[in-house]
Amino acid sequence: MCERVIARLPRRPCGVLMDSYEEALLDFALRWSGYGGGEDFIFTEFGIPPTTFYQRVLDLVEKRFATLLDTPTREHLRRHCVAKLDCPPMMA
Q1: Do the Cβ atoms of 73 and 2 come closer than 8 Å?
Q2: Running DSSP on this structure, what letter comes out for residue 67?
Q3: Distance CA 16, CA 11 (A)
Q4: Tell me, what's the pLDDT at 62?
Q5: CA-to-CA distance for 27 and 77, rounded, in angstroms?
Q6: Low-confidence ranges of the chain (pLDDT < 50)
């Protein structure tokens, strides 16, 4: 559904830069969201625990780079991270 969206993201929109680490976080989250999340590989890939990973992805999706993702992809990632963090959804 949301595979390889990162490759289509603009690299330098309106002076906002997303570094390669942030791109990798989003790309990994998108690739693995349809397969349960890939928790077994998060620490190996990023050196952080899954909770930290999902908090960072959620922050990217909700705050910093929300406009770089299309609405369905942004909402898909937001729901996935919220479910993984087991926190109540934010009211829009």
Answers
A1: yes
A2: G
A3: 9
A4: 85
A5: 11
A6: 1-12, 14-15
Chain centre to alpha carbon of residue 63: 11
Give me 61's structure tokens: 């999706």
- Torsion of Cα atoms, 30 then 32 then 37 then 41, to 10°: -120
3-state DSSP call for residue 52?
helix
pLDDT for 68: 72
Contact 37, 80 (CB under 8 A): yes
The model's pTM: 0.74
Q: Contact 61/74 with Cβ under 8 angstroms?
A: yes
Report yes or no: 73 and 5 within 8 Å, Cβ to Cβ: yes
